[in-house]
């Protein structure tokens, strides 16, 4: 029996969106003699979650994972294509890997994920250092593709699927704090927002078998996890009627068969244990129903936080974006959240400035909508044209870069004010916090999040990660709440 080596693993360049950049490592198991894989993840939580599926598939097939690229026999970049900048980051990384490969010619380089899917074989032509190009639905094929490269070929599989959900694969939890985990509940997106590349890189929407989701949540809870985040590009359109195929499910629903919708699924996961927190992301304003909001209200362990990306506050721009809702519709959904879940429910958003033909007045509509909602937090971007999308084909990218960026700065400045304002409301109140570990600044402090997803920092005392504590918040910045545990 080979010795077990610990201290492994994988680098992360993500947490929620491509905008943030985090680097984390975690121990894992690697057996002596195994070839070593190093994975770097870019982009959204879905990609992060996919890397855990990739690690699992590779582990089953005899590969270990390592925390240092220098030690690796294989390096996979799990890439994002959402904005041009995301792709440039990967291109720069490949230049660096090229230098590494010159010193170690046996090193295998794979590009996975959304950029692989978007560029397909073109990526092999453009980036000579790449041996392997694999799209998000082809990860089961990785061991075979790796052996093709072993035989001296370069390998590609970018076939998208209508059924693949990797439901039977138990993810290897990478960079885990042992307390919070992601569960992917659906894949792909059928929405066709005109600016967005995701429908092209991730294929058609499909939902995962709810029993496998509930089982994964139960297994995590049994291992000591205390929080799961249900992931999908549009979780509110989750629907299961006995098959992954969405068309079949819709047919079954029309025939009067019972289907499981997102509200039903949320309830099923909430019932795993009152001690297991449930979060979800992302909600689409057109699909979030009062039924979902009432389900959230009914269960204390479903966190009172909704990421509800608006993109723009102007109805004409929303129409050009093909978001299929108006400013008024969006405001109605915000009012429903406040009515059913109260003022303390956390709400965050994504915003794009300088979309095709956006006027100054229309940009101001985004600012006034922000004033109305007072988001706790937002991810904010200027528009980046993506080849092949509806917008790239139909509209000119006609807002000058300096205007896009000036509008973005206005949105960011307003959001910073609102975050500070919303956090000040939390002062003097007691918050139930799930402890996630030591605070980033000091071992003497712990940190966790409240139900509304806000980071709370407090003196450690004798508490440990995984515990629920009541914290009286005494100070607040735009990013963090600071307080003390009330025993
Ligand atoms: N499925 C999620 C969003 C996924 S992409 C949703 O529908 O809300 C994350 C965010 O990236 C989007 O909400 C959008 O704000 C931003 N984004 C997507 N395409 C973009 C582009 N071409 N330029 C700039 N930002 C973009
Ligand atoms: Fe992209 Fe729209 Fe789908 Fe979100 S809902 S992934 S923005 S197409
Ligand atoms: Fe990026 Fe793909 Fe996610 S394009 S944001 S990694 S779905």
Provide structural commentary:
This protein has 487 residues and is α/β, with parallel strands linked by helices. Helix content is 34%, strand content 22%. The chain has helices at residues 45-60, 84-103, 113-119, 122-126, 142-150, 198-202, 210-222, 246-254, 262-270, 290-298, 315-320, 327-341, 360-373, 390-394, 401-425, and strands at 4-5, 11-13, 30-31, 35-42, 63-65, 74-79, 108-112, 132-134, 155-157, 180-184, 186-187, 206-207, 227-231, 239-240, 260-261, 277-281, 305-307, 346-353, 377-382, 430-438, 445-449, 455-459, 468-476, 480-485. Mean pLDDT is 92; it is low at 1-27. S-adenosyl-L-homocysteine binds at residues 17, 82-83, 195-196, 198, 233-234, 282, 284, 309, 311, 350, 352, 381, 383-384, 386.
Short précis:
This protein is 34% helix and 22% strand. By secondary structure, the protein is α/β, with parallel strands linked by helices. The strands form seven sheets. Strands 2, 4, 5, 6, 7, 8 and 9 form a seven-stranded parallel β-sheet that branches. A five-stranded mixed barrel has the order 20-21-22-24-23.
Task: Describe the secondary-structure layout.
Elements: E1 4-5, E2 11-13, E3 30-31, E4 35-42, H1 45-60, E5 63-65, E6 74-79, H2 84-103, E7 108-112, H3 113-119, H4 122-126, E8 132-134, H5 142-150, E9 155-157, E10 180-184, E11 186-187, H6 198-202, E12 206-207, H7 210-222, E13 227-231, E14 239-240, H8 246-254, E15 260-261, H9 262-270, E16 277-281, H10 290-298, E17 305-307, H11 315-320, H12 327-341, E18 346-353, H13 360-373, E19 377-382, H14 390-394, H15 401-425, E20 430-438, E21 445-449, E22 455-459, E23 468-476, E24 480-485
Parallel strand pairs: 2-4, 4-5, 4-6, 6-7, 7-8, 8-9, 10-13, 13-16, 17-18, 18-19, 22-24
Antiparallel strand pairs: 1-3, 11-12, 14-15, 20-21, 20-23, 21-22, 23-24
Residues 18, 43-44, 46-47, 80-82, 113-114, 197-198, 201-202 line the site of FE3-S4 cluster.
């Amino acid at each position: 029996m080979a010795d077990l080596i610990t201290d492994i693993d994988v680098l992360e360049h993500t947490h929620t969106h491509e905008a943030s950049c985090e680097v984390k490592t975690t121990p894992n198991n690697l057996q002596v003699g195994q070839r070593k894989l190093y994975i770097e993840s870019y982009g959204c939580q879905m990609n992060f979650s996919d890397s855990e599926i990739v690690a699992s598939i590779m582990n089953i097939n005899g590969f270990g994972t390592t925390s240092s690229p220098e030690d690796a026999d294989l390096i996979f970049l799990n890439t994002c294509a959402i904005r041009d900048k995301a792709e440039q980051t990967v291109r720069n990384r490949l230049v660096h890997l090229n230098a590494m490969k010159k010193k170690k010619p046996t090193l295998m380089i794979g590009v996975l994920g959304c950029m692989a899917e978007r560029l397909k074989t073109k990526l092999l032509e453009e980036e000579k250092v790449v041996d392997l190009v694999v799209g998000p639905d082809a990860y089961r094929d990785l061991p075979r593709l790796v052996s093709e490269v072993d035989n001296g070929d370069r390998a590609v599989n970018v076939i998208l699927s209508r059924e693949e959900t990797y439901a039977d694969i138990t993810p290897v939890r990478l960079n885990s704090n042992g307390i919070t985990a992601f569960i992917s509940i659906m894949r792909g997106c059928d929405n066709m927002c005109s600016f967005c590349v995701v429908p092209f890189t991730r294929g058609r929407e499909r939902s995962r078998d709810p029993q496998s989701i509930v089982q994964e949540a139960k297994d995590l809870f049994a291992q000591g996890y205390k929080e799961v985040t249900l992931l999908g590009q549009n979780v509110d359109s989750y629907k299961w009627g006995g098959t992954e195929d969405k068309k079949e499910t819709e047919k079954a629903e029309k025939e009067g068969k019972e289907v499981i919708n997102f509200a039903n699924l949320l309830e099923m996961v909430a019932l795993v244990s009152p001690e297991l927190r449930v979060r979800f992301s992302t909600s689409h304003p057109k699909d979030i129903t009062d039924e979902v909001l009432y389900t959230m209200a009914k269960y204390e362990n479903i966190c009172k936080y909704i990421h509800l990306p608006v993109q723009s506050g102007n109805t004409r721009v929303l129409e050009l974006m093909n978001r299929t809702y108006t400013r008024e519709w969006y405001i109605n959904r915000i009012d429903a959240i406040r009515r059913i879940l109260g003022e303390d429910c956390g709400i965050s958003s994504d915003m794009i400035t300088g979309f095709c033909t956006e006027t100054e007045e229309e940009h101001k509509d985004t600012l006034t909508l922000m004033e109305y909602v007072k988001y706790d937090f937002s991810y904010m971007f200027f528009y980046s044209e993506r080849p092949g999308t509806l917008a790239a084909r139909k509209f000119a990218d006609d807002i000058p870069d300096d205007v896009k960026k000036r509008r973005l700065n206005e949105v960011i400045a307003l959001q910073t004010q609102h975050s500070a304002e919303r956090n000040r409301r939390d002062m003097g109140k007691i918050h139930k916090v799930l402890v996630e570990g030591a605070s980033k600044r000091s071992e003497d402090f712990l940190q966790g999040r409240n139900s509304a997803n806000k980071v709370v920092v407090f003196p450690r005392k004798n508490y440990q990660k995984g515990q629920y504590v009541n914290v009286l918040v005494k100070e607040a910045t735009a990013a963090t709440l600071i307080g003390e545990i009330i025993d």
